[in-house]
C-alpha cells in the first residue's frame, strides 16, 4: 500500500504545479491507497499527516513529491521511522528545483510533475527494507601535520579522551604560524599564543608526537585505517637529546636556514628554532661533513648526553586509527620563474612576505631589527607588492590567497613601529578585509601609520643608484608610478604544501585545481573529505587565516570525536552488495572502485568472491556497471527499481518524455 | 643551403640600409640564401592602415605572404614591426573564414598564407650553430657587455607571435654569447621605446627612451643590441634630443644584432654601417 504526498511548499511549487491535480492522478495509480496535497510537508503538521496515514491506512511505502532529496530526504526518512516503517521505504520526487522553479507554463509543469510521480510510484513498489550496518571503530585518531591546524585538532580530540598520534615531517611542530612575528588584526605575538599550545601537545597524555616523520602508506577504511609512518633518520636519539645546542654551536658545516625562509644560515646539525617542540637537534646528512667524505665527528664528541648516532636508521611504524585528520597547511608560492620582471630573485632586497616576517621577528636572523639583506642597512622606503601569484591570470593563478591584504597591512604597520621615520607603500588590487575588525585595522594602517596605498599592479622592479625602483600603475589616478625603495616585499600567494597531492592520493581524496584538498560539500560538509573517516583541517583545504584555521580544525576535531565517541560506526545501507552465488571472482569491481571498498573473500568451498566493505562504500554504483555477470547491485538502486522507473516513464500513454532520475 | 624569402620592408630600404647590409653580410657568411620578395608592398605597420579601417591592415601583409607562397624555406622579416604584421595577418586568416574569403577576392585568387614567418633572431638561431659562430668570431666582442633590447612587437602579443617569453625574452643571448659578448640581465629589454609617438608626441619618446638608456647604463652595458629599426631610431637618433631636453650626456651605441655579429665576424664598422649611426663613437673595445 503506497501513500503519495505532494508538497505545495507555500507557493514555491503550487504557483506552477497544480498539486491537487497531481494528487488526483496519483490516487488512480496502481497500489496507491492515499494521495494528498499538503501545504508544507516538512512542517510538524505535514509530517503528522503522513504518520497518521501510515498508521491509519496501513501503508508500507511512501512517495513524497517535494523539494530535492538533498534538502529533506533525511527528514522524511525519520518521519517514516517514527511512524513504524523502515526509513528506506521512501521515494522522493524533486518537483521544486527540477520542475516548478525552472518552468513557467503551469499545465506543462503539472504534466511533468505527474510523470515524475508516476515513475516514483513504479519504483517504490520494488523497495525493500534496508538496515544500517554497524562496524567497530578503532578509538585513535591520526593528525597529519603539526601546524596550528593540526595542533588545534589534536588538542580538541585528545581533550575528549580519544588518543591521538600527530605526525610532523619537519623537526618541530609549529608550522608556518611559528615563523610569523605578529598576527592581524590584534598584533598579538604569534609565538606567544602558539608556543603554549605546542608545549601542551608535547605534554598531553593522550597525544603521541612523531616529528621527522611522514605518512608512508594508508590501508583500510573508516574506523579501521592501517597507516605506515616513516620515521626519518636524524642521527639524534630523541630520548637522550636535551636541546643544549652545543652541537649546533660547534658544528663547522653551514646549511640553509629553512625556518628563516632562506635568510641567514643554519648548521648541518641544528635545532630548528629556539621555541622548537620537541627541543631536540636533528642532523641533515646532505649538509654534514661526515656524510660528505670528511671525518668530522665533532657533534658526537661534544654531545654531553651521548645522543648522536650516525648509524641511526629510518624506521617504519604501523599504527591503527579510526579517523584521519589532514592538516598539512600551505607553502608560499615560488614566484621567481613567473615574474621575471621582478628580478627572478637576483636582487637580494626583493624579499617575500614570509622572509619579511623573519626580519620582523625577534627570533629571526636580524634579532627583530629590519635590515635589508644586501648590505644590512635599515630601510627607509619599503614597498609592498600584493597579489604576487594571486589573482593573476597571466601566470595562470586566478585565485585569491585570502590573507595577503591583511598580512601586508600588518607588515606595513610593523614597519612604521620598528622604524618610525620609514615610509611604507602598498601596491594593492583591492583591499579584502572581510574578517572581524579587519577593515578597521586596514584603515588604521593608513590613518595612524601613514601607509600609502596605491591601487595597481607593479610591472617592473629594477636597480638604480643603489636603490630598487618599483614601477607600477596607479589605476585610481590613471598614472604611472615609480618609487625608489630600499626594500621590496612581495606578498606571495599560497599553495597547498609540497607533497599534499601525494598524501591526498594515499588518503584516496581529491584535490582541486589549485592543489588544495577537496571537502565533500563546500557549505554543508566543509571538513569532511570524500573518503569516509578522513577529515580536513586548516589551509590544506584552501587558504585560511589563523582564526579560520582554528575554527576549521576545531570542526574537524568535533567530527572525529562524533565519529569515534560511540566506538562503532553506522554505515548507510545504500551501498553495493554482492550476490555471491553469481559472483565469478573476476574482481573487476575491485579495480574500478575509487574508494577501495571491495575486498577479496573466500567462500567456505574455497571459491573467491568479492565482498563490499559497507562502511567504506560510498554507493557510487561504478562496480554495478563493471560487473560482467551482474552480481553486484546497489541497495536502493537495484536494476529492478531503475528498470521499473524507465519503463514507466517511456510508456506511450504518458504523453511526452521526461527522463529525470533526480 | 636554405633559402628564405626576404621581406625587407620600408625601413631596411630607407632609414635602416645598414641593417639590410649587415644582414646580407652575416647571412652570406653562414650560407643563408636570401631571395628578396618580388613586388613586395607595405607590411601594414604604418599608421595609415590602422586609421583607414576595414581590412587594409590584413590585406597588405596577406599579399606579401601570398607572394612568398611556398617557394622557399619560409619568409624572414628582420624588422620587428613587419614580422609582427605578417604573424598577425597569418593568425587572423587562419581563424576567420570570412576574412580569408574577402582576402582571396581582393587578390583575385585564394590566399596562400601558411608560409613559415620568421623574425631575424629566429632565422639566425635556426641557421647558425653557436659553436661555429664562436670559432669564427675574431674576438671583437669579447670583453664587451651588451644589453639585449627586444622591444615590444617581437614578442607580443604572445598568443599571436608565439615567440620567446614575452616578459623575459632571451633568444638573442646564445648568439651574442657565442660571439664573445657578456650579456647582463637587462630589466628594460621589453620596455616601450615610445614607438611612432616620435611624430606626434616627441616628449613621450624622449622620456621612454631616456629611461631605457639610463637603466642600460646602470647595468653597465657598452652598447644596446636590437632588431627593430623603430627602436633603433628612438634610442640612437634621438639620443642628442634626450641630452638636450634632460641635460644628460649619453653616448650609448645602439647596434642591430647583425652589426654586432658582423663585428665579431671581422667586418669593419664602416662595412657594417656603424659609422652612419648618430652615436658612432665605437664602444671602447671596437
What does this structure look like?
The complex is a heterodimer of chains A (662) and B (286). Chain A is of the alpha/beta class. Chain A folds into four domains: 2-130, 3-Layer(aba) Sandwich (Rossmann fold), CATH 3.40.50; 141-329 and 533-564, 3-Layer(bba) Sandwich (FAD/NAD(P)-binding domain); 334-492, FAD/NAD(P)-binding domain, CATH 3.50.50; 572-635, Alpha-Beta Plaits (2-Layer Sandwich), CATH 3.30.70.3270. In chain A, a hairpin with a 2-residue loop joins β24 (458-464) and β25 (467-474). Helices cover 27% and strands 25% of the residues of chain A. A five-stranded parallel sheet of chain A has the order 10-7-6-18-31, with helices on one face. In chain A, strands 20-27-21-22-23 form a five-stranded parallel sheet. The model of chain A has no long low-confidence stretch (mean pLDDT 94). Chain A is built from 17 helices and 36 strands. The two termini of chain A are 24 Å apart. With 286 residues, chain B is α/β, with parallel strands linked by helices. Chain B has two domains: 3-119, no CATH class; 133-276, Rossmann fold (3-Layer(aba) Sandwich), CATH 3.40.50.11810. Helix content of chain B is 47%, strand content 8%. Chain B contains 15 helices and seven strands. Chain B has helices at residues 9-13, 17-29, 47-52, 56-68, 80-95, 97-107, 120-127, 130-136, 158-161, 173-178, 197-200, 202-218, 229-237, 239-246, 257-264; strands at residues 3-6, 33-36, 75-77, 117-119, 146-148, 223-226, 254-256. In chain B, the strands form two sheets. Chain B has a four-stranded parallel sheet. In chain B, α2 (17-29) crosses α15, α4 (56-68) packs across α5 (80-95) and α12 (202-218) packs across α14 (239-246). Chains A and B meet through β24 of A and α12 of B.
Amino acid at each position: 500500500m503506497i501513500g503519495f504526498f505532494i508538497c505545495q511548499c507555500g507557493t514555491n511549487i503550487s504557483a506552477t504545479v497544480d498539486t491537487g491535480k497531481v494528487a488526483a492522478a496519483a490516487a488512480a495509480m496502481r497500489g496507491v491507497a492515499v494521495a494528498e496535497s499538503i501545504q508544507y510537508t516538512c512542517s510538524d503538521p505535514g509530517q503528522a499527516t503522513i504518520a497518521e496515514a501510515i498508521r491509519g491506512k496501513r501503508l508500507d511505502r511512501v512517495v513524497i513529491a517535494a523539494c530535492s532529496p538533498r534538502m529533506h530526504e533525511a527528514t522524511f526518512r525519520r518521519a517514516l521511522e517514527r511512524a513504524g516503517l523502515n526509513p528506506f521505504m521512501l521515494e522522493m520526487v524533486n518537483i521544486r528545483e527540477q520542475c516548478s522553479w525552472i518552468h513557467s507554463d503551469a499545465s506543462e509543469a503539472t504534466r511533468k510533475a505527474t510523470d515524475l510521480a508516476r515513475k516514483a510510484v513504479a519504483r517504490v513498489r520494488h523497495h525493500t527494507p534496508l538496515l544500517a550496518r554497524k562496524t567497530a571503530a578503532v578509538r585513535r585518531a591520526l593528525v597529519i601535520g603539526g601546524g596550528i591546524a593540526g595542533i588545534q585538532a589534536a588538542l580538541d580530540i585528545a581533550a575528549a579522551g580519544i588518543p591521538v598520534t600527530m605526525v610532523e615531517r619537519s623537526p618541530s611542530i609549529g608550522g608556518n604560524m611559528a615563523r610569523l612575528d605578529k598576527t592581524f588584526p590584534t598584533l598579538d605575538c604569534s609565538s606567544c599564543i602558539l608556543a603554549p599550545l605546542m608545549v601542551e601537545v608535547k605534554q598531553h597524555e593522550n597525544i603521541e608526537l612523531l616529528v621527522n616523520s611522514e605518512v608512508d602508506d594508508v590501508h583500510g577504511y573508516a574506523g579501521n585505517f592501517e597507516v605506515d609512518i616513516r620515521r626519518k633518520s636524524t642521527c639524534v636519539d630523541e630520548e637522550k637529546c636535551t636541546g643544549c645546542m652545543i652541537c649546533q654551536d660547534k658544528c663547522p658545516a653551514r646549511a640553509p636556514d629553512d625556518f628563516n625562509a632562506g635568510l641567514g644560515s643554519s648548521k648541518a646539525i641544528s635545532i630548528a628554532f629556539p621555541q622548537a617542540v620537541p627541543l631536540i637537534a636533528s642532523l641533515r646528512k646532505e649538509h654534514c661533513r661526515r656524510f660528505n667524505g670528511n671525518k668530522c665527528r665533532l657533534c658526537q664528541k661534544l654531545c654531553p648526553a651521548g645522543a648522536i648516532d650516525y648509524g641511526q636508521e629510518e624506521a617504519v611504524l604501523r599504527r591503527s586509527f579510526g579517523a584521519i585528520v589532514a592538516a598539512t597547511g600551505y607553502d608560499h608560492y615560488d614566484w621567481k620563474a613567473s615574474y621575471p620582471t621582478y628580478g627572478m630573485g637576483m636582487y637580494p632586497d626583493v624579499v617575500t612576505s614570509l622572509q619579511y616576517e623573519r626580519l620582523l621577528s625577534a627570533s629571526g636572523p636580524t634579532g627583530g631589527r629590519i635590515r635589508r639583506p644586501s648590505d644590512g642597512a635599515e630601510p627607509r622606503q619599503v614597498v609592498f607588492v600584493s597579489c604576487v601569484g594571486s589573482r593573476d591570470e597571466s601566470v595562470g593563478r586566478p585565485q585569491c590567497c585570502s590573507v595577503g591584504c591583511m598580512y601586508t597591512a600588518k607588515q606595513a604597520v610593523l614597519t612604521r613601529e620598528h622604524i618610525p621615520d620609514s615610509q611604507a607603500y602598498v601596491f594593492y588590487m583591492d583591499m579584502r578585509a572581510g574578517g572581524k575588525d579587519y577593515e578597521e585595522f586596514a584603515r588604521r594602517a593608513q590613518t595612524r601609520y601613514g601607509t600609502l596605498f596605491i591601487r595597481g599592479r607593479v610591472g617592473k622592479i629594477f636597480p638604480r643608484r643603489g636603490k630598487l625602483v618599483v614601477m607600477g600603475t596607479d589605476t585610481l589616478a590613471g598614472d604611472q608610478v615609480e618609487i625608489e625603495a630600499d626594500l621590496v616585499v612581495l606578498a606571495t600567494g599560497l599553495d597547498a604544501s609540497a607533497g599534499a597531492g601525494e598524501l591526498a592520493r594515499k588518503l584516496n581524496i581529491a584535490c582541486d585545481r589549485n592543489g588544495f584538498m577537496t571537502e565533500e560539500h563546500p557549505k554543508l560538509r566543509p571538513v569532511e573529505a570524500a573518503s569516509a573517516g578522513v577529515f580536513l583541517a586548516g589551509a590544506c583545504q584552501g587558504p585560511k587565516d589563523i582564526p579560520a584555521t582554528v575554527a576549521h580544525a576545531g570542526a574537524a576535531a568535533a567530527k572525529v570525536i562524533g565519529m569515534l565517541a560511540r566506538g562503532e560506526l553506522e554505515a548507510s545501507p545504500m551501498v553495493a552488495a554482492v550476490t555471491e552465488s553469481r559472483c565469478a571472482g573476476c574482481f573487476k569491481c575491485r579495480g574500478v572502485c575509487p574508494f577501495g571498498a571491495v575486498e577479496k573473500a573466500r567462500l567456505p568451498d574455497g571459491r573467491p568472491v568479492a565482498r563490499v566493505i559497507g562502511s567504506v562504500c560510498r554507493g557510487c554504483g561504478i562496480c554495478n556497471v563493471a560487473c560482467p555477470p551482474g552480481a553486484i547491485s546497489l541497495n536502493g538502486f537495484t536494476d529492478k527499481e531503475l528498470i521499473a522507473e524507465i519503463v514507466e516513464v517511456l510508456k506511450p500513454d504518458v504523453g511526452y518524455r521526461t527522463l529525470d532520475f533526480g | 643551403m636554405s633559402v628564405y624569402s626576404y621581406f625587407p620592408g620600408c625601413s631596411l630600404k630607407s632609414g635602416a640600409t645598414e641593417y639590410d647590409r649587415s644582414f646580407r653580410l652575416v647571412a652570406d657568411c653562414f650560407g643563408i640564401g636570401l631571395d628578396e620578395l618580388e613586388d613586395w608592398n607595405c607590411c601594414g605597420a604604418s599608421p595609415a592602415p590602422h586609421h583607414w579601417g576595414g581590412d587594409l591592415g590584413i590585406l597588405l601583409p596577406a599579399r606579401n605572404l601570398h607572394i612568398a607562397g611556398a617557394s622557399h624555406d619560409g619568409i624572414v622579416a628582420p624588422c620587428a614591426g613587419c614580422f609582427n604584421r605578417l604573424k598577425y595577418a597569418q593568425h587572423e586568416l587562419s581563424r576567420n573564414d570570412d576574412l580569408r574569403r574577402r582576402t582571396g577576392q581582393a587578390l583575385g585568387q585564394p590566399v596562400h598564407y601558411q608560409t613559415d614567418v620568421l623574425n631575424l633572431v629566429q632565422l639566425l638561431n635556426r641557421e647558425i650553430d653557436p659553436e661555429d659562430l664562436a670559432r669564427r668570431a675574431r674576438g671583437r666582442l669579447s670583453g664587451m657587455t651588451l644589453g639585449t633590447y627586444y622591444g615590444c612587437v617581437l614578442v607580443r602579443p604572445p598568443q599571436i607571435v608565439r615567440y620567446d617569453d614575452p616578459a623575459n625574452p632571451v633568444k638573442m643571448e646564445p648568439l651574442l654569447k657565442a660571439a664573445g659578448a657578456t650579456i647582463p640581465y637587462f630589466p628594460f629589454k621589453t620596455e616601450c621605446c615610445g614607438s611612432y609617438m616620435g611624430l606626434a608626441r616627441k616628449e613621450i619618446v624622449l622620456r621612454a627612451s631616456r629611461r631605457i638608456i639610463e637603466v642600460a647604463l646602470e647595468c653597465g652595458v657598452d652598447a644596446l643590441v636590437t632588431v627593430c629599426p623603430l627602436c633603433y631610431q628612438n634610442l640612437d637618433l634621438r639620443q642628442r634630443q634626450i641630452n638636450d631636453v634632460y641635460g644628460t650626456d649619453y653616448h650609448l651605441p645602439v647596434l642591430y644584432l647583425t652589426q654586432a655579429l658582423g663585428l665579431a665576424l671581422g667586418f669593419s664598422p664602416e662595412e657594417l654601417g656603424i659609422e652612419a649611426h648618430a652615436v658612432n663613437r665605437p664602444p671602447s673595445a671596437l
